[in-house]
Amino acid sequence: MLTMDENTDKPEKNVFQAVAVDGSSVRNIRETKKLTQLYVANVVGVTTDTISRWENNRYPTIKRDNAEKLAAALEVSLDEILRREEEPPPAEEPLPPPSIRRHHWLLLILLGVTVLVATLLLSRPIATAPSAVRWLPTFGAPGEIIPVQVKVMHRDPGTGGIIVRVQLPAGWQLVNASPRPATGQPSGGEVKWLLPGGSDTSTISCTVRIPRDAPLDSAASFAGKVVLQSGDSTRTENIGGTGKVTVNGRHWADSNGDGRIDDNEIMPAYYLTEEMKGLGLDWQTIEAIWSGKGYTWDKTRREFVVIP
């Protein structure tokens, strides 16, 4: 997965900025929608290990912002992934002696202020999830074909057609796509799709080739927009999700960039390759690297060399 991580591995000190996520619900929703941990992790901006810990309820709470991003990645509302627990009724307490009732009044006032602050913090509006989310691998090598996906959420059944515009990095070439983009050659690296309206989620899967002369340790940026039509009006939104690929001689399936494809990386790569079958991804090389001890990048021949 991504080498970046977040501070959700520890419970939040400020409970008003944290929420309890039901890991079982997260896993069930993800598997029902056939989303991989790799995809969800990229949208949220964490590692697959973090997603696994959330799904296994390893932490009592996570950041509210991350919970909102997680709900957006799963294409559900935040309420659908929150943990629901019944609070036990408060125990009856005897009436305090008159000598300490004044202290109890002070505590009640402090508690009231705390509850008011918590209510204001938790009642803030949930961030609106983007209508389209892009997934990219973390790494790639010069001349390699890598996968790119854009998931478009149709939230309004009355929405008309949707135009998706994907801006490729300079010199990067579109190899194949499903569904097929608009006819004609891409202009200035921009590829366009016209999708019908409806209430289902649409997925655009495409493969692009990194230029063979792309410099190592460089970062290539993707951009894009969606144009949504509703009645006689239209609105334009940026595509969310990941937007950069690091060109460093690492295979796209090697998500943590350690020079091998391990058991945690082979299954997401397999599912994605099967989903994008016929679009040009090289499964044989992925399987060979996984079966061996790793791989290196031959700068002269510009190809992967498997370590048996």
UniProtKB/TrEMBL annotation:
Keywords: DNA-binding, Membrane, Transmembrane, Transmembrane helix
Protein name: Helix-turn-helix domain-containing protein
Transmembrane segments annotated in the record for this chain: 105-123
Record-linked PROSITE patterns: EF_HAND_1, HTH_CROC1
InterPro entries to which the protein is assigned, alphabetical: Cro/C1-type_HTH, EF_Hand_1_Ca_BS, Lambda_DNA-bd_dom_sf
Sequence ranges assigned to domain HTH cro/C1-type in this UniProt record: 26-81
Organism: Geomobilimonas luticola
SMART domains assigned: HTH_XRE
